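hey m, so remember when u said the tokens were messed up on ur end? i reran from scratch. heres the input so u can diff it against urs
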Amino acid sequence: MGRTPGIFAWLRIGAADCMGGGMKGRVVFVTGTDTGVGKTVLTCVLARRLRQRGLAVAALKPVCSGGRTDARLLRAATGAELGLDDVNPWHFRPAVAPLLAARQIGLRLRRTDVLARIVPLRQRFDYVLVEGAGGLLSPLGEDFDSRDLIVGLDAWPVVVCPDRLGAINQVLLVIEALSGRFAARAQVVLMSRGRASVVSRGNRQILAERLGAARVHMVPRLARGLITGRRRLAPDLGRTLDRLVGL
């Protein structure tokens, strides 16, 4: 991290990381405006939908701290195609920023380590879903955050935000931080908190005006059965998930 490179530097970094990777599957990177905003929930139902469409899907949370529940949910959503340690290679028990948790055990985690675990999966899967920990700029290792992984993977970002007062500012700050082609192709998901309200309608209207209506998606409050697979995805939700990944 440290000094932020200009956009041309970001593009060179992304091209260098993806060269030689034999790109095949698309990487969709699910980030958010904060921790606890619904990234895992969305990644799980997106994985289920892609499998429903007959596509080969991997879902990862490469770095996390605290519990490992999110990684187990992601693994289940993809039919346990990968082992838990492949879904979540770096897990730290203390519920603090992964960078701090890694340092507590003397580990210096680097961006190249994480990319090396993800890039080969593009040859095996049609879609590789990667969930970041915390918000976009939360430090994950010594020299990287989720933005650095998005660039290194040439990923398609999905920005998750609770549909509440303040969402407009939070989403636009994340989009601005992405910059360049990554900002231009980022999709936004507003996670519903219940019934539609003046705030909810305003969030969607303003974000659609700023980013384009096709890039702003509303996802209703999701029952646990949809995440675990015990309930079927509603057709409207399925179509929203398809649009998120360009199907």
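this time it looks ok to me. The chain has one domain: 7-17+24-244. if urs says something different then somethings off w ur setup not the seq
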